[in-house]
Design brief:
Blueprint (H helix, E strand, L loop, with lengths): L4 H9 L4 E4 L9 H13 L7 E9 L3 H23 L6 H8 L6 E3 L1 H15 L3 E5 L7 H23 L1
Parallel strand pairs: 1-2, 2-3, 2-4
Helix pairs in contact: 1-2, 5-6
């Protein structure tokens, strides 16, 4: 869903599991949507359905490496989308906030990314997290390493943290 009450109602009407597209702002601002979804299903007499979250991110060996490798690609992509939507150009400060602990960008070392996923998944009571790891024209080797770190380190860490 796109973060509107109407999109939540549509998911309930069609009895679909809900995936929150969290691409900007604090992920915790979506807790009311997850709560509204669960309450609406219950009110309709429907069985509980899973909630998931989807956000952009990038994993590298260290926080510094991940942020450095991602920045140019992120800002280019963000500014292209922004120009289409009438947003002002992005800044390094905007990137830092999005990549920080309260932002929607899951970027950093496996430990940093896992902690952020676990914290937000717990708050949203989400059973699934999908990371959009392709951010512009990054080198294939970087993307492969991101996928490897996500699967071999991030996912097991999140599983342990959520147990």
């Amino acid at each position: 869903v796109g973060g509107t009450p109407q999109s939540v109602v549509r998911a309930v009407r069609y009895r679909l599991p809900m995936m929150l597209a969290i691409i900007g702002g604090p992920p915790l601002q979506f807790v009311p949507y997850a709560d509204f979804y669960r309450e609406s299903l219950e009110k309709e007499g429907a069985a509980p359905l899973p909630v998931g979250m989807h956000s952009p991110g990038y994993v590298a060996e260290t926080d510094e490496q991940a942020r450095e490798e991602l920045y140019d690609h992120w800002i280019s992509q963000r500014n292209q989308i922004g120009s289409e939507r009438g947003w002002p150009p992005a800044t390094r400060n905007e990137f830092a906030q999005a990549a920080g602990p309260d932002g929607a960008l899951y970027v950093g070392s496996p430990e940093t990314v896992a902690r952020k996923i676990a914290r937000n998944a717990a708050a949203l009571q989400a059973s699934r997290f999908d990371m959009k790891y392709a951010n512009g024209p990054m080198r294939h080797e970087q993307l492969l390493r991101c996928i490897e770190l996500y699967g071999t380190q991030v996912a097991p860490l999140v599983h342990d943290m959520m147990a």
